[in-house]
Amino acid sequence: MNTHKGLPDMEQTLRKIRHYLPSQAPLKDFVHHNTLHAFQQLDFFDAVRKVHTLFGYKTILTPSEYLALFREGKIDETVLINTITDLKGEPSVQHWYRLLMQSDSFTQECKPLVGRIRPTWKSVYKIDLEGMVNTTLFRLLNSYLDQGIAIWKFPHTDKGFLPALRELDKATAGMVFKTGRAKQLFHSNASIREVLKLIVGDERYFENYLFDQQFSHPGWSGMVAVLEDKPHALINKRTIRFDELVLLECLLELDALETVLKGRWQPLAAHLTELPANLDVPMAGSVEDELAEIWQTAYEWTYYDEVLKGLQSNAPKKNETAFQAFFCMDDRECSIRRNLEYVAPEVETFGTPGHFNLDIYFQPEKAVLYTKCCPAPMTPKFLIKEISKDKKKQSDVHYSKRSHGLVQGWIYTHTVGFWSGLKLMLNVFHPTENASSVSSFNHMNPKSKLTILHDNDWKEEDGLQVGYTIEQAAERIAGVLESTGCVSGFKPVIYMVGHGSSSSNNTHYAGYNCGACSGRPGSVNARAFSALANMKEVREQLKNHHGIVIPGDTVFIGALHDTARDDMQFFDTDKLTEAQKKEHEQYHGLFLKALDLTAKERSRRFMSIDTRRKASYVHKDVRTRTVSLFEPRPELNHSNNTVTIIGPRRLSRGLFLDRRSFLNSYDCRLDPEGKALAGILGAAHPVVGGINLEYYFSRVDNDNFGAGTKLPHNVMGLIGVANGVDSDLRTGLPSQMIEVHDPLRMLVVIEQKPEVVLSVLENNPHLFEWYRNDWMQLVVLDPDDRTCLRFKGGRFSEYIPFHAETEVISDLAPVIESSHENLPVFQLS
């Protein structure tokens, strides 16, 4: 504990640094989150200004970039003037409008507070301390945390990070440290403060120095901080603490100084003339910041206005319903739902988080470990196991570990190696599925048996109950049906459609799967939900305890939609009756037509595909992209996500929202107190908010918040990616995922009475923070007259869209074929 009056405690300093570091999990658990989660207690624009001032990161577009968007027509002038009036008052409109039109002359450059101290080493002693230290530091971290890439395992990993290093340093002279001073401090368990006293001197600079140090490589520092809190995120268990990383880095710096300067140096503080920066001081805004706030708000409401007018005026045709389908609320399912409704007007579709209310871990056949298949904040208490009689799939000989040996390696290189080179060359011209391909359809064997119903003879495994009891199953089925408003009118065939993705050579694969399933495909959840809902005992429980009566001839069919291939897989169709099989075959054909149209719609973003051809031909090319080793964009994932609509499908059915909308079904008439809404928002916020803001910040500053281009990425220890072999871990999203993304915050639209929505939010401070601080925008649609009520400044007020009407079109194909850009909202006749 620090006893110096007025100086920060070391533990407090380390907690502050950890709080600001990126919190991205290892690649296998890559789930989207708010990049600036540490600042979410602040107003959005205050937060982005503070981050820019602290770290120099670009957190918002520049005024000149917004001016370019205005000139391109992407920011509406009427909306812009209304925004100025709203933010600055009507008397100031002309003044601010004039400044906005002069945005080319403004910049947002600043000298960040973090990063000012450590460069003094280079300016005074001409020593590149980061270059000398980081190579050793990153290699030690990577070797210790390695999850399966390394041929030789790091020794003594059971003892923890620093104890293992001490054993290694004792056994190998000069392996870690080159000088006796650093080695002696290391083995005597010196504290961070003791080492900082040697290299920095004045304790007033310790906090600034450690911020400089750790934010020179926020990727590795953030990963260590995450793994300290969540050691279970690693398959091969490793114990590491953030303070161990800081201590090791300080010792490596001392060792480098002693090695190069040989005692001819003074502590850094002796060369500093400025007092340490106060990192907690409120950040003052500038004219450039105010211009950016006006521009960003107008940019967003230019699009929001289109959406709200479309929702207000939408009047879909009423059709008799023959079958029903539940999809994940994911924005990529927006288009498949619309296209299915186009080819099959008799379908009724619903949207809900794709884990389908199942809080489970899944253990594949012959797997030792479990995979989480529900949203990240949830802690599952149930386990579903896969039991299969199929033989284990043979591994590709090109990936055999036998090639690592001296003799066998030589043989493999001169035999299989030539064939591997030939396969690689052939894949350039004729891409086919290969050992590096990852398919969502392989997450679960469709012929296997799932332990979905609890058997009293089964013992708990690691504190997890295997399968659900009848009562537990009915409760989870009812949760989905009640929250979506589907509590009656059940049709003979109901599909539960999860989603996943396929690709080759894609390090961020988990980010393409279902966020509600913790980055896994939703196949297990869709299949398990359907099987439980088909059980007679579960239906009796639903009837007696939830008042939900499902007819005896209704069957639920689980399915998986691969959003990269636009293919679908249906589960347990062999259990259908002959009549049900006949109906399924008819609906299956409609799904195939909708998938063709969806693939064609997506293809307009892919420059290598001629979208003007017949949909089925375009679909073949879309499939080919997913197996090509040389395709960095198998799909564009959540690009341009902007809207979440929580309400009945009649609000948006027939509207073309260009795959930009998350769609969560909800019937406010069945939820007068907002209990179901509270559950929906609790599940939706971590998913849609995290997706939207990670895309936003990765797009605005891909160098600092994103991962850069995929092309030079190397996988480090199976936990992260880096450029080359010795650089920092890259966090955020690769440029290939965000290059067409428009950086707009999420608009959430809810059909409900405003007082009910406000009550729900006030009862959940974590949810309320998103809206109170403007990290997401909120509009409530009054269910009686569709009046738009915008939430701002803690209250709702009426918002009247500026758009006179939404354009009606009868044929979407010409529009799709003519533009690679984002399209406006259309009403499909």
Mean pLDDT: 92
Total beta-strand segments: 24
Spatial ordering of strands, largest sheet: 15-13-19-20-21-22
Q: What radius of gyration results from the CA coordinates?
A: 28 Å
Low-pLDDT stretches are: 1-5
Taking the sheet with the most strands, its summary is: 6 strands, mixed
What is the helical fraction, as a range of percent? 40-55%
Bulk shape? globular
Which class of secondary structure composition applies to the elements? alpha/beta
- Give the helix tally: 27
Distance from first to last alpha carbon: 70 Å
Characterization of this structure:
- By secondary structure, the chain is α/β, with parallel strands linked by helices.
- It has 27 helices and 24 strands.
- The strands form 6 sheets. It has a 6-stranded mixed beta sheet, with helices on both faces.
- A hairpin with a 7-residue loop joins β3 (360-363) and β4.
- α3 (63-71) packs parallel to α14, α10 (192-199) packs parallel to α13 (242-261) and α21 (578-603) crosses α22.
- It is globular and about 85 Å long.
- It starts with 9 loop residues before the first helix and ends with a strand.
Write out key terms for the chains shown.
alpha/beta; 829 residues; globular; 24 strands
Sum this structure up briefly.
The chain is an alpha/beta fold and 829 residues long. α10 (192-199) runs parallel beside α13 and α21 packs across α22.
